[in-house]
Queue: 2 jobs
Job 1
Amino acid sequence: MTAAVPVARPRGQWLSTLARQRELSLVAILILLGGLVTLTAPQFLTVANISQVAVLASVIAVAAVGEALVVITRNVDLSVEATIGLVAYGVARVLELHALDAAGAIVLGLGLGLVLGMINGLIVTLFRVPAIVATLGTLSIFRGVDYLIAGSHQVPLAGLPEGFTDAARDTFFGIPYFVLVAVVVVAIGSVILRSTRFGRQLYAVGSNPEAAAILGIPSRMVVFTAFSLCGLLAGAAGVLWVMEFGTINGTSATGVVLAVVAAVVVGGVNIFGGSGTLAGAALGALFLGFIANALILVGLSQFWLQAIYGVVILVAVTADAFILRRLKRANKRSGSR
Amino acid sequence: MAPVKGQPAWTRLVARWETLLVVALAGLVVLGTSLSPFFLTLGNFSNLIAALMEVAIMALAMTLIIVAGEIDLSVESMAGLASAILGFLWAAGVPLEAGIPIVLAVGALGGLMNGLLVARFGLPSLVVTLGTLALFRGLALIVLGPRGVSDFPPAFTQLGFGHVAGTLIPWPFVIFIGLALLLGIVLHRTWIGRHIYAIGKNTGAARFSGLRVTRIRVSLFVLSGLIAALAGIILTSRLSSARADAGAGMTLTVVTVVLLGGVNIFGGSGTIPGVVLAVLSVAVMQNALRLASVTVEVQSIALGLLLILSVVIPTFAHQAKSAVDRVRGGRPPPADSVPHGERALP
């Protein structure tokens, strides 16, 4: 049996490579797509354009990393856009009122995000409400609070302290700061997932909750932590949102959850939980960012964007299920031999 | 659940949930009357009910979907797509007699797409319908763009805006009651309904018992798409305007109404009468909040809380009940009637 295993799967081999190397295939598709778009719109491949896309994608990527943590535990957080919106308005308003300096406002934003994430985590773990219902509810509640405190007020760019939005445009040896932030978040998160007890428990809870419980893994604590971190990262995305856009009102970041979930799904995080990488989720965000940019450069209207997000989500989950099914079949065949 | 012998407690619990709703409804009516003398007038009631009918008829189809253990988040976008296509066709000179059937067919097709992806490919309905939530809204924007179409003939706007001749009963309410009767009979009095409960309770067992699980699931999604398109038509008629963003945010209210009606989010239990009661309760609640001049923002907070509470309260009531039973030394509850708090959606 042990001798037969290495030779027996010529068919499942490329499929499993494809399934495992989602990051690689994404990069390949990106390069192919980039080439095609460059043919029709040469400005696509300029440094200015690419760094502009990467900066915006970094904001989504930070939120997508948080969402990936939750999805790996076989849950979902639909309230991220409301968290981003509420944190963005809170930070911008505090700065406009000169209540805190820039550093204080950033800490406030991160703290607010963490608290909102903890609320989600508590509802899901302590009150045992399924994540979809809990976060659909908090999506409405957080957004309602956002509208309530914002009213019709809009914080203008001039209301922010001078230089606050520079971070979105400044670079460090040619690399935008936002991209560095996203890379650092992905790096820290990946190390935690790969090398700490919490990281392994996250995968265990997502891939087999019953087995995880038998092993004595505190699954509720793990899920709670995942939601809290998701809130914290959504808070970070909210702070980045203020720096990127400058003008913030109560409706900021509406509809962003679709981009975040699409990034996670495209990035190869299994929607059934238990597998996926944070780098994949971040690459997914970059992928969507380039698609959005290419659309505009090719001359399609902005309205196509939403439809394309939908198609991307559907294609990604269908492809995942297809690959998984073929893999299982191939494994079964080689196993029975 | 009914066939389990010696366990009338569960059926009584369900009955009590509906009783609770009636009590809540009565309480809200009393509260509303104390807020404003106009609260109980027929004119007011007819207005408050008419404004919720699109949500209400989508909730009926959603009830069957959730009982079968699935969810359809795309209904609000399908309503928007229906509105956009109707407006586009009317602006292009297609008569409504042709336009409405086309829109309904698009609704059924969209539902078929959801159904095939969920039932054939075995994908989770949550993600599939999140994808079509984006896709259908995107298509609506592509079809109609940011403009609105509003020169519909009076005969059409009468559908959403008018009343049955000589009374104050709005036409959408008639459609809602008709659909509630139809789907109520299908769910509670036919083999189709029993199969839906069986699938929601235990899909594997249902399949091994020879039930046509795939076919029923696909049909339910087709029904949901069709009804969402109908809701889009009614919405267009009531506002006498077709817009691509019609119905945005309605899914939340639809799911809230269904869960408030006592339908178990994990599938396998729930009733149409419960959901009808929940529709009336939410209508009265929204009206009471409006009369108390509570802002729309606070209403959306209240709705979110209501959604979460409608899952929390039954779970805790059940736990409290089994705790009391344990203290009294009674039988433990059957394992399958315990709400699976930590189980993820299929």
Note: The CA atoms of residues 122 and 251 of chain B lie 23 Å apart.
Job 2
Amino acid sequence: MDQKSGVAPIVIDNLHKKFGDQTVLNGISLHVERGETVAVLGRSGTGKSVLLKLIIGLQPADSGTVTIEGQQVTGLDVNQLNEVRKSVGFLFQQAALYDSLTVEENVAFPLNRHSTMSDADRKKRVRELLGSVGMDQDLEKMPSEISGGMQKRVGLARALALDPEILLFDEPTAGLDPITAAEIGKLILELKQKRKMTAIVVTHDIRGAKVFSDRMILIHEGNILAEGPLADLQKSKHPFVIQFLKESS
Amino acid sequence: MSTVISGALAKGRARDLAPAVKSIFIEGFEWFGEIGIFCARVVRAAVAPPYEVGELVRQCDAIGAKSLSLVALAGAATGVVLSLQTHDALTRFGAKSLLPAVIVFSIIKESGPVITGLVVAGRVGAGIGAELGSMKVTEQIDAMEASAVDPYKFLAATRVLACVLMLPLLTLAADFSGLVMGWLANALADPISFRLFIENGFKNVLFSDFIPPTFKTTIFGFIIGVVACFQGMRTKGGTEGVGRSATSSVVLSSLFVILADVVLVRLIQMLWG
């Protein structure tokens, strides 16, 4: 628990989400402590990405609450929500870079709108951010001109632009070759070690998650089925947990 | 017997048809409700600071400057056709001297504004529908929201406002090219100087003949911008969905431009005579 404010940076309480008749999240509760990285595992379509979107209000929850840095997100208006969102970075599954902007402009986008930096400082900050993910040689390239792995790096630089306290990763290594996936995993680990960031990582990559996460949760049928470090999950006697870990390894 | 069978079949068909018709009506009402809420959200986003001036200028260029040649060409073609069609008819009734006035009135009061509205609905409606649709399915709009930027302000309000601002200017371009080409087509058959053509044409034109029809295109611009942004931002279903959004943006915005024109023509007649 955070010593200063006395609250965990991310608190999810009894969260429910349905799409039509299909229940995606059925009362999920989760506390993420400051500086902790939690890996969210589960089969495709079990609501892992939806959970991330609910956390920053990109989709409305049917019931339950999400609290970020002591501020309840559910029920906020757009302006209040945007204030909360400034403290949260989000790396999307396909990076979601803006097609019409260059690599440099993509990373500068949040800074142009929310920072009071001078143009020169902003430019320097963008270069620093892109340098930190090894992309400072491709400033003028368009997203369509760089590989999927490079797009993820740029997406990560953009997510870090406003110096967030919290990072949400939606399958950061999906669709990447093992070497690039390992590099992205290493970047997440670096962020955790250097910046002491609080993070939730939705992933299918258990090997990577073992390296960068403190705790794993396994979502099944809208609920958290198993929780803890990988070693604890491996001790589970639940047939689904056993099967999931067996098939993933 | 056959009457009984066909009656039963007809009853069965009617039973099958009823839920389908009901669902179309409900979907239609839902669509109007949703676009109404969307409109309110866009207008609220547009008037609240901070203003996205840079993006607005970029959209004015994309919507206005880049549509100019197409609109001018459509206006020119309309002028030529009007000139050729009315020349014969007026000659037959011995009213050839009225040709410049007929062309001027026809272009500035109706053809210019409507042609501009329809051309922009086609070019810009499809462009906005496809662009925003593609941004939606690739999560770029979500990414924008996650960066604490309101997409209704940055994407929709700027595009709608650019359409509203650019349509009257494009209409002027369509009017001008229509008149020039109308004169040229007429001059090839019956030589007449451009100055005389314009003097004869505008002799009885009042400001109320020119200003309201030109500025009614701001409404066309609003319709095109709102419908295309709405269809784009609610895209579902990958690339197929993007195609559907682009098509529906063009079809619906063109349809509503024509329907709005009917109302606006009557309204202008009532207000300015």
Note: The beta strands of chain A are 10-19, 22-32, 37-42, 63-68, 71-72, 88-91, 166-170, 198-202, 215-220, 223-228.
